[in-house]
Amino acid sequence: MLKEVNIGFLGFGNIGAGVYKIIEQYGKISFAREGFKANIKKILVRDANKRRDINVDKSIFTQSIKDIVDDPEITLIAEFMGGEEPARQYILNALENKKTVVTANKEVIAKHLVELENVAIKNNTGLYFEGSVAGGIPIIKVLRESLQANNIFEIKGIINGTTNYILTKMSEEGRSFKDVLFEAQQLGYAEPDPAFDIEGLDAMFKLSILSSLAFHYEIPVDKIYTEGINNITIEDINFGRELGYALRLLAIAKKRDSEIEVRVHPTFIPLNHPLAAVRNSYNGIFIRGDAVGDLMLYGKGAGDLPTGSAIVSDLITASINNEKQRHIYSTIDKGFHDSYGMLFNDNWETEYFIRMTVKDKPGVLAKIAGIFGKHDVSIASVIQKGRNGDSTPIIFVTHKSKEISIKDAIKDMQNEPVVMKVDNIIRVEK
Amino acid sequence: MLKEVNIGFLGFGNIGAGVYKIIEQYGKISFAREGFKANIKKILVRDANKRRDINVDKSIFTQSIKDIVDDPEITLIAEFMGGEEPARQYILNALENKKTVVTANKEVIAKHLVELENVAIKNNTGLYFEGSVAGGIPIIKVLRESLQANNIFEIKGIINGTTNYILTKMSEEGRSFKDVLFEAQQLGYAEPDPAFDIEGLDAMFKLSILSSLAFHYEIPVDKIYTEGINNITIEDINFGRELGYALRLLAIAKKRDSEIEVRVHPTFIPLNHPLAAVRNSYNGIFIRGDAVGDLMLYGKGAGDLPTGSAIVSDLITASINNEKQRHIYSTIDKGFHDSYGMLFNDNWETEYFIRMTVKDKPGVLAKIAGIFGKHDVSIASVIQKGRNGDSTPIIFVTHKSKEISIKDAIKDMQNEPVVMKVDNIIRVEK
Lengths: 430, 430
Hints:
Radius of gyration of chain A: 24 Å
Oligomer: homodimer
Number of helices of chain A: 14
Strand content of chain A: 25-35%
Largest sheet of chain A: 12 strands, mixed
């Protein structure tokens, strides 16, 4: 005899419809294996009469959040409205009414995880958010329930499919950023207003969640240095490849002793790094732990069914845990080392790719090398070729240097008459 | 106040010592986060006085299995003896005494999972085996607890580090199989008797476990077609690369309708496939599900700490589940579709790379093409070059063909006077 679990949906867009489909199809077996029958009892929508591609009995639609959070039969609530408000408020209402919440809302979780977990703990109910990061890739559960025995000290993630699609196409087809972005918008891979993806904000929210889980420490989004791919040109990509690198928008979190660095920016990685094999709109998350060593997860970071796969998994896990009254709240350490204050380091050390346009005359390289030397920046490789008459491109890759040293050196470069332009500065990770 | 969990170890080799170290170090925090304190109470060893690199109070060593399985205070038993017997018997004894077992024993799990799960169910206790496949990669938990909502229909895995190390070195350094195997043995990456790895048996056991979990159906090891890498030459690898392929020992499981195919063999995959980026002794497991799409996990498939990471994770999960009396036994479907008998298909359809040595004279290609045509095998590409006087190598890649058609065509080739030798036949997967 299967136990019925009544579920309320908040929102019924693309992801909501994907979850509905999975539950109605293969998901029936998945719930039954654990002894449950899932019943989608109510769905909060703005317009019940909107034309939808999916066949749902309209009587379960409601426009009132109260119909869901106040329904005593509903024990699980799945939120996929997106955006900060009113989603956050609805999730809070649900938790306060002792309902377990499953959400795919990266913005709400990145900004309010600690608050929401505290409310969940107080009400002895559950909060799950596998769908909030990297779609179908089960990175949240792996961090919480498979790598628990590890001191995780590094994460490098390709966690935004839109920018990875654009960078792959630019690289493989030699096309410009604008051209590929336009195509991605036509194909629906990029939003009409692409800023959220292109400028790195989407990856920033996701990195906040991942690094909080990995380090058991709250990582506020405003501590994350964030730089998008808007300024990347095909010249950067081509010169990088010549030096043995692939370009990716990486979300990076590192921990050493009591220091944390968190940053999202375009990054060169070696062509034979496993993350370099993450092409098109796929996501890849590379983790280093003291016991497990290097681990990578790769898969579809978005889409109705991949994200639905994560959400339905959470709904099944939540059903099991609710039955046994065992909830999961180990995100932020309390008690063990509360006093253990972490410092956010923004003067990190890494290698740098620097592309400049300089005057094409003797002695230029010596002058530039002198400026780098003055700031303790040592050079690993240089490309200088293709004379353009008066000016010529020159590319440096540095050895490991402090961010501040590079910034200071670049300031000096801009005052040096032989340097016509500093075209781009791209960090390199090994 | 932390709840003490008493653990007994069966065996204390490399992996056991890794688990011990993790529990004594970072693992303390990991257990405490969930409310537990782990106490390693007894360790079964053959010789308590053997010199060990690890500092352990000798009073916890015992040579009697009874001291562990009959100790009422011990609730969790971790087995890392390896081999079929007496490990299987000890695991059975432990389960019958209502102790939860965590094992890394691929042979016992591959051969006896159904039997052991039934005993665990009968005794209302737990059985966990994350460490039995792919070391630190949490593939068991991902299949059971993250991809539950998926109908999984394909697995392709690089799940033996020794053979992957050998194939990577052969490919990247142009060295012979024998030469690299010898080096791997010197470095400790290959056993003095390498047959278990080289001939594919290790991968066969692991594939049995993975495919049973993925398909919720018992996949006996003797249903798995298994072929090792012994006959791979540098010529195969070089010609393959020229055609755009990397060579890997793949463990493949596919399900379609009520048909299953399971096979372990050297396989060419496209150079831009994510599995082609799995180099050296790393493992990679590529999964296709109806909702999640393509998913890959990559990491260290062996070693004391990576495998220890998986085992300690199981010990923590088991502690939580034991407290709540919720055990995990959804490996094989019962009830839903017991009548759903699966067929094991050994006449699969794939592409083939066929390398032959033929007489160097006009009309040879036409003769061979005629033989392929007679067996309905159509050719996708041919390489013929470098005349060696009387003989010349010739390489064909076929379009998708049935295994039986290829075998029949090869039989005819061997009776055809212009064919001097069929050097190798390697399957190709896209």
